[in-house]
Structure formats: structure tokens, C-alpha cells
Amino acid sequence: FDEGFTESNKLERLSRPKVPKRYVDVLREDEIRRILSCIRRDDAIGTRDMAIVTTLLDTGLRLAELVNLKQADARIEEGQLKVMGKGSRERLVPIGASTQRLLLRYVYRARPEPAAPSVDNLFLVANGRPLSINCVRLMLERLGRRSGVTRLHAHLCRHTFATNYLLNGGDVFSLQQILGHSSLEMVRRYVTLASAQV
Length: 198
What we know:
- The protein is 47% helix and 6% strand.
- By secondary structure, the protein is mainly alpha-helical.
């Protein structure tokens, strides 16, 4: 009809199909315990991986934000991370005391020397080069298999953080700021999920 092949629009009275709302999945407390118990804490790689997983669960950072986090922007003693989010928007993300301790332990005991003076990323691989997104994905995949939580991925940690934040008394406006969302639309999904869990 729009292109002139028919005289009338036969589909005019049909309503458009609604896009199904996707359920936001989160990690249960027992799953988080199983994941953390699978990380070796007695070597540099395990110390780094523990710091990464707890940071993801405690801050809701996106994977790209985590790997691009600069050491100078990790204000660990102050309890916050300065993050460059989507659309080149900076924001301050608070971190909890246990994540603070794990990050300090990583920085002072396990972080390798940077491979070059220009490398300022907080998280590095053993040879001192910046950690890649793919490296973290593979690490989470291995952890998921070892712990039996095969659905583990970085965004699942983000969903878990957001839901737990609301369940523990956080408000939607500060959650929006922490997650770096430009609108409340995504945050509303977490509110619905948190309400269902209550």
C-alpha cells in the first residue's frame, strides 16, 4: 500500500505485536559463594581475579569500564572509582570495604610492573600489558564451569549488583548515577525484579 501496489491497506486494523519483556537474571547468594570459592587466593593471578569479580559484583561496572579503568582513577583509599562510561561520560562509583581490601591487596602484592610507561590500566596480565575484554570473558567462563554457575558473565554481575543495591535500601536515582544510565527506564526493570524478590 505504501508503495502503491494495492488500493487499500489490508493490515491497517492489525495491531503491532508487542516485544516481550525480558526477565533480568541475577546471581543467588549461594552461587556467588560458589564462584568466589573457586578462585585461588594464594597467587598473583588468583588475587587479580578475586579483585575483578568482587569489583564487578560490588560496583556494577560494565566490562569495558573495568578493563579501561586507570590506576590513577582507582581512588581505592577514598572508596571510589572514577569511571569513563558510555558516551564519554565520567562518573564516580563507590566501592565497599571488602572490595577496597581486595583491590589494595592486588595493587600492592600482585599487580605486575607495567610493560611500558604508557600502560596505566589498573588490571594487567602477567606480562604487564592491559587486560583485554576477552581475557575477562574467558576467566568468567572458566569460573562459571568450575563453580557450576555456567551462566556467569560480566553483565550478570551488573544485574546482580543493581538488584542487591535496591534490596539493601538503595534508591533508584543514586543507582542510575552509579550505573551510568541516562534514563530511568533500565533502572525500572531492576525495581520490578527487586520487588518480586521481596
